[in-house]
Amino acid sequence: MKKIAILFTALSFSILGFSQENNGEFHGDFDLSMQSYQEDALIGAEAADEIILNNAYLNINYTKGNFSAGLRYESYLNALLDFDDDYKGNGIPFRYATYIIDGLEVTAGNYYEQIGSGLIFRSYENKGLGVDNAMDGIRLKYSPAKGVYLKSFIGKNRTYFTYADGIIRGADAEIDLNTALNFESKTKIIIGQGFVSRFQADNNPKFNLPQNVAAYASRLNVINGRWSYSGEYAIKLNDPIGSLTAEGNNYANGYALMSSLSYSKRGFGIIAEMHRVDHMEFRSERAQEKQYIINYIPTLTKQHTYSLLALYPCATQSEGEFGTQIDVFYKIKKGSLLGGKYGTKISFNFSSIRSLQKGIKYDVNGNEVTEISSSFKNDYNDFTPKFFSKNGELFFNDINLEVYKKINKKVKATGVLAKQSYNKDVLEGKTNYGIVNSTIAIADISYKVKKGHTVRVELQELLADGGDGSWSMGLIEYTVSPHWFFAVQDMYNWGNHDIEKQLHYVNINCGFLSGSNRFAIGYGKKRAGIFCVGGVCKEVPSSNGFSLTISSSF
């Protein structure tokens, strides 16, 4: 891998000289995150051995006509504490070259790819989560006819600065029937079919493990005027996943179903969604670590940005969950009693995630044997949980109402009221916490002092009996466009049942923006907890110290 990285580095400098004479274009970005860690026994924060820890990366991309190439240099000296320890050192883990000729796109090296919504395969990067499962191999894309799109790939997925043992092969076909068949209709239909397989040699002396594991996914998208429907169904075959000990593994097939129906018109929209996931985690090798996961189960919960609304986020349970969600958007017209001069925007969201209910085990003659729990049993391949699981164990429940109102030319306000239920034992792997029920209220007000000067105030309140108890949060932010911003935030855990943990988590931040460059410095305390994006989560340790971030693009 180091030899390849050196080759790509040399190639990039050669391209740089070549591009200056042939009108090629370079673009890229740089990001640096540095933080100090001080010991703070009250919040459980530990000091780092080094004075400063840092994560940094530089992307360089070159394009000329139908050719493009690039690389990313990454540095972890050493990685921030909320990243895995295996992110350590410097290197070029991402490099690629792509060209297009007569409709065929060829990529050699690293690439990110996704089939459908990701149920059977998704290779992507999210720096905040510490996720980067980039593929290393070959990818082809081709459109043999109008409305027909084909792609295939083969490679290994990245794990830190190395690669997983499994070899991943995939193919996908998507057809826009209206375009492909050249007919006009108010109804537009798009169908797709994906396939992924993993090969890994069976070197386990205790079990007969399948060397080839396949997954299939079919999808459908129908659009008719204001109505839209999308659905996807996936099957993962015979993929034993577990501790690989004497207790055995689960050989059952995995299933996933996603369905979404939406209606929209000016000023109004509604989306109804459901999904059912059953033993659907797909990994690039037989291991339990999250860095080997190569598929993605989209969450069916609203992605909150306010601190206390996101205090208890929902992590997708790929081994078994049944979820439903409804989103409603409505804008009250300008000039009406409630709309006022500028109108009023209202959004309502409800989501519920539960376990799959108990299933039935059958004998070879198809007769019912006994009822078994919703968790998989050793070596069963006929576990059949109920399809609709409205009475399964509650994992997460969220009902929230958000109102946005522009009051006048200077004042804008957002108000949120929510009730959440969070199964801390299941979603965080804890014990003796049970379900945390909370009520959250938020007021967010922005005031334009004068041209380019804006002050924003957030007041948040979370009332809960379980978990860490009740919280209050206050934030004041002052922005001087287009260059400066200043912010002070205090999260106060006043309702913690342990009096010694009724603490303030104060953070002070300021930043400067100049063109494509952004500089930010801060100091404060962060609570330990779970950070999630789209149902993918990581555990974040508590910390106390200074931080510096610098980002730039060109």
Q: Give the proportion of residues in helices.
A: under 10%
List segments where confidence is low: pLDDT < 50 over at least 5 consecutive residues. 242-247, 371-382
Instruction: Let me know the largest β-sheet.
Output: 24 strands, antiparallel, barrel
Measured on Cα atoms, how large is the radius of gyration? 26 Å
* Overall pLDDT level: 90
Shape: globular
Q: Hey, roughly how much beta strand do the residues contain? A: over 45%
Count of individual helical segments: 3
Note the gap between the termini: 27 Å
Structural class: mainly beta
The count of DSSP E runs of length 2 or more, i.e. the number of strands, is: 34
Give an account of the 3D structure.
By secondary structure, the chain is mainly beta. The protein has a domain at 300-355 and 393-534. The protein has 3 helices and 34 strands. The protein has a 24-stranded antiparallel barrel. The chain has a 3-stranded antiparallel sheet with strand order 22-21-23, with no helix packed on it. It has a two-stranded antiparallel sheet with strand order 6-7. The longest helix has 21 residues, at 2-22. It is globular, with a radius of gyration of 26 Å. The protein starts with a helix and ends with a strand. Residues 242-247 and 371-382 have low confidence and may be disordered.
